[in-house]
Automatic annotation (TrEMBL):
It is found in: Cell membrane. This is DUF421 domain-containing protein. It is a multi-pass membrane protein. Keywords: Cell membrane, Membrane, Transmembrane, Transmembrane helix.
Length: 244
């Protein structure tokens, strides 16, 4: 027999826990999963465990399965809402915030999202920036990633800067994988088997079974890696005697 009181508990409690966890997450601040400290990791696990334990304690019997369904539905609805509504996206996911402008660190903005100087320096180094004066803008994205725009005098020169025309090469695609011909990729890119055969012969490929991977772009050359590579000077790892 359906117990409406337990059903209400199974629906009510996951909603409370979900809203609470989102609120606490927004308060804690922005960090990528790979940048979480041990303390951040433990805190996140603890919060999730407390929320799950609360629901499991308050909801009895198989009605706890209803709570799992409700939680999954809330995640789906949140994703749909943030995709369709800008205000909801800003409220739930947050907004980009400028932390460096014209080489100057904006401490007040960093303080608002609990973003410290060590995190800033680390993420700048990941962008090959070791000098604050080279930064025109550094923006902390909602997901915790740092986007950096260098000042024009520190940017790498591109063909566009030199007015050199270039052609798009497109993305590489597989033509042979583990000794097997990828016919669908050949057809999609209008590559004939005759052309491929001539290329393989020119590169001394005796059998497709000898090829581990062969890729190419529409404009680029054919790259081939053999299953048994004959290295002239094979390098060894520092920790053991096996070949890299």
């Amino acid at each position: 027999m359906l117990d409406f009181k337990e059903l209400y508990q199974a629906v009510h409690h996951p909603i409370i826990v979900y809203i609470l966890l989102i609120t606490l997450t927004r308060i804690i601040g922005k960090k990528l999963l790979g940048q979480l400290t041990f303390f951040d990791f433990v805190t996140g696990i603890t919060l999730g465990t407390i929320g799950g334990a609360y629901v499991a304690t308050e909801v009895k019997g198989y009605y706890v399965l209803v709570s799992a369904i409700i939680m999954a539905a809330l995640v789906y609805l949140t994703g749909f809402l943030t995709m369709k509504n800008v205000t909801a996206r800003k409220l739930i996911e947050g907004e980009p915030i400028i932390v460096v402008q014209n080489g100057k660190i904006l401490e007040d903005n960093m303080s608002k999202v609990r973003y410290n100087q060590d995190d800033l320096m680390m993420q700048l180094r990941e962008k090959d920036v070791f000098d604050y004066s080279q930064v025109e803008f550094a923006i902390l994205e909602p997901h915790g990633k740092l986007s950096v725009q260098k000042k024009s005098q520190y940017k790498n020169i591109t063909p566009t800067d030199l007015n050199i025309p270039t052609q798009d090469r497109g993305i590489s695609f597989e033509v042979i994988r583990d000794g097997r011909l990828q016919e669908a990729n050949l057809k999609q890119n209008n590559i004939s088997f005759t052309w491929l055969y001539n290329q393989l012969v020119a590169k001394n490929v005796k059998s497709l079974e000898d090829v581990f991977l062969a890729t190419m772009t529409k404009e680029g050359p054919l790259y081939i890696d053999f299953k048994k590579d004959e290295l002239v000077n094979p390098q060894r790892s520092e920790d053991d005697d096996s070949l890299i």
